Amino acid sequence: MTDTHVDERTEAGTDNRRAFLQTIGLATTAGLMGTAAGESDSAESTTASSDADLVSLTHGVAVGDVTATTAVVWARAAEAATIHVAYSPDQSFDRVGYDRTTVDAETDTTGQLRLESLESNTRYRYHVWATAGETAYRPLNGRTGGPKGRGPGGSNGKGKGKGNDDHPGKGRGPKKRPNEDGRGDGDRIADAIPEAVESGTFVTAPAPDDEAAVSFAWSGDTWGYGDDPVEPPFPGLRTIAECDPDFFLYHGDTIYADALTPAGKVTEDTPIDEALEIYRGKYKEMRDPPAEVADQTNLQELLQSTSVYTVWDDHEVINNFAGPIEPLMPEGRRAFREYWPLDRDDDADPGESNRFYDSFRWGKHVELFLIDTRQYRDPNVDLDSKTLLGQEQLEWLKGALADSDATWKLLASPAPLGYPSDSWATEADPTGYEAELLEVVEHVQTEPVSNLVVVAGDVHKSVVSAYDPDDDGEFEFFEAVAGPLGAPAGEPDDLYPALNPTEFFAKGEYRNFATVDVAESGETLTIGIYDEHGTEQFTKTISTSDIDAAADPENPDRIESTFDEDAEGWLVSQNGGSNRPVYHGTGGNPGGHIGDAENKGGVAWYYQAPFEYLGDREAFYGGTLSFDLRQEPADQQFDAEPVEGGDVLLQSGDRKLVYEFRSADDDPGEEWTSYEVSLSANEPWVDLTSQEPLATEERFREVLADLEVLRIRGEYRSGDDTSYLDNVVLTK
């Protein structure tokens, strides 16, 4: 149940304890009606009785999913209670909005309240408290004549913006809030608040047509990892609060359910009916750690100072879990909903929706897109076709990116697009989700989606990079990765070569966070990387002219890889996994070339083409694919059955076409051997996924129109083998 009460004409001058209590109604409980009217002989008797009706809030407060006109307030009571919130755009609390909701054990006594009709681009202050009875409270000095509805209504409060002292600290890096005399109205009000009342502040987003600067911070990966967790207090959280960002993006692994902490540890063997309490305990100790661990984690301080957008990743459930096949996911998802202020589904009350993806607009220049890479994913195993986002979320993301007119599109992906992980692109044994990554990247190019910047976490390093997957000399998107805040950090790895990356900065083995600052003009976006104490590690300013996602309207007549300078984004694929080939600067046919060695057995391994070759290539129907191969030694040869991929494989979704060179002399020798095959149904291409044994022209064109995989066989020998590739050319 949620009730709403508003009065625009409350008494001013709340600079002492009793006046504040009267302003927000705590001195007007049912048993103190006469006292509130002035029948008490002392303020002490009023406040003492009022305090007795309060139920303590146990884990601070938070505000999340802020828009220009709405915000969600979160709190947890010590027992079943009514949670109340009073909020105002004025430091003096002259104009007060009010809301309340009841909570009980069903949600672990957590509650969320959605505030509406807020003023855009405005700093709000709020106070939250709980009472034992639903009817024990009469709001705002018992007046009932004020207008009904959510929020403080149409007011003329001072908005944040350029030159507004209510919102200091804009710009790069940590800054302490200025305080001219050391005590403002907010400080004096704080002196009047009972200990059972929790307070905080947040800033609403600028309106979509508002030319406004925007600043936010992000990181993730807190409370340790494995059996030996890194312990609080996580100084990075405190440093972020000192930056005074417009909002904080808490980017995944907000708890480590599968790490041993005082709250317990979730494993594959944890009974489902016990998992929920462990998950809940993890969120509680992140806000209020056990005394034997630390006095604080600094998370409450951060959440009280700004709003938060929270993204989940794997450790909110269990390491590297995959969507609906994970039996523990529903309980982990429930606890995540209970302990974060979420408002991402128009058809559900806050905290009750299973949809965690959405977009949030911050003025004319910024739109933040939050995606869920866990809830809908297929297992990360060798499948012909699998999804990371799920079809509904994928189509939403593509449409939302294309429809956005914000100057900068900020894609909050829990895991990076261009850095290897267990998600978008994986170079270990699992196959990754390269086909879906290609679909997103191709969509960015063809729409086109301008000024895309990906902000990510998960990999426990800080990396700033840009990507030119079609190799046209223009970056399609930038990406910045930050974290961890508490988990152990490793050394950076190489970026995903198939996306044709350019690396500007990479650093590991330290705890860190990052910031984004978009200029009021919208012309520039600055990425900052900081260690947990606020020391700058790297900054890069990007202008709108640095990104050109538009694909060349004329398809090239020729795509080639001569390997004269590097491996040009090619990978080696085997047994469902992929890794980098070895690059050789000399000894090719001529110049440089790539190669790899394999001694693990299994099906034949392949050279895998980068994104430059993929996408809509129907115009190449009737053209040719040529390449040079060499191996050492050339004995113990075996034939690759078509079901294993033949000598060349073309794939689109679950549609596979393979070709075999059938001559007795077609195995590559110890000298370079040249191959060429026509991309047409005139050649005997085998259709592995149709009732027709050979590919028809229609089928061939379907595959080329959305080409997701092009592979060239590299293994021809049943024993230990080494193979080399050079001069791959795709021509019309």
Automatic annotation (TrEMBL):
UniProt key word Transferase: no
Database matches in PROSITE patterns: LAMININ_IVA, TAT
Gly residues bias spans: 143-158
Ranges that cross the membrane: none
Classification via Pfam families: Laminin_B, PhoD, PhoD_N
Superkingdom of the source species: Archaea
UniProtKB keywords: Disulfide bond, Glycoprotein, Repeat, Signal
Region ranges (Disordered): 137-188
Residue span(s) of domain Laminin IV type A: 565-732
Annotated PANTHER family: PHOD-LIKE PHOSPHATASE METALLOPHOSPHATASE DOMAIN-CONTAINING PROTEIN (PTHR43606:SF1), PHOSPHATASE, PUTATIVE (AFU_ORTHOLOGUE AFUA_6G08710)-RELATED (PTHR43606)
Name of the protein: Alkaline phosphatase D family protein
Organism: Haloterrigena salifodinae
